[in-house]
Amino acid sequence: MIKFFRKIRQNLLSEGKSGKYFKYAIGEIILVVFGILIALQINTVKNNNDKRNEEITHLKNILSDLKQDKSELIKIIERRKSKTESATIMENYYHTKKVDSLNLYYFHWTNVLMWETHNPSLVTFKELINSGKLSTLTNEKVKQLLLQIDYNYNQMFELRNHLYHDYTDYFYKPFADFIDYEHGLKAFLEPNKKIELSREDVEIALENKRIKNGFTLARLNNNILREQLSEILTKVDSTIVLVEKEIKK
Questions:
Q1: Are the C-beta atoms of 239 and 66 separated by less than 8 Å?
Q2: Which end of the chain has fewer CB within 10 Å, C or N?
């Protein structure tokens, strides 16, 4: 192609048509520039498409993570609610000093003491942060919500760690000296089955102020954890809606 253009210019010069030569040269320059601009535009479109495809992949993975996290959040919120209710019942035993049903006592006792955790499924979001690729997400609202969810989880972890230390000091250590954990598990797993349980162990527990304080703290902190998790769930729901819209754009 270059040889073809050069031959045309040489013919124009040899024929003494300098005016046409310069016009042709200018036209040729314009044509080359135009070709370069088209090539740059094509390259820009390709790069943008590549970036968008990469973003879509990340968004789909984030959406999958959020939906899984939502499912687990719903379960743990219900468990925190149940623990709060059981801790309230256990606390009331210390006010009345009366336990009509040992099975119920051990059921609620085990329900409170059973340690359960939820860890977020935000794998893709963490990978984007660790790899410095969070900027691939172009929707600022999505990024802000993900950062808020991560921050709220860190706050929840602090309280949960505090609660675990409370459980160790107020429940696990004192109860381990006189109560049979196996009885509690049987009553919890088979609440309608008649089980031979120790009333003497229960009466010892009802005289222990440390244990009573433990149930008070368990009621308070499990309820706070439930509220924190519910707030996270609300933000997860909002993020799911935004991410789905962003994928469909």
A1: yes
A2: N
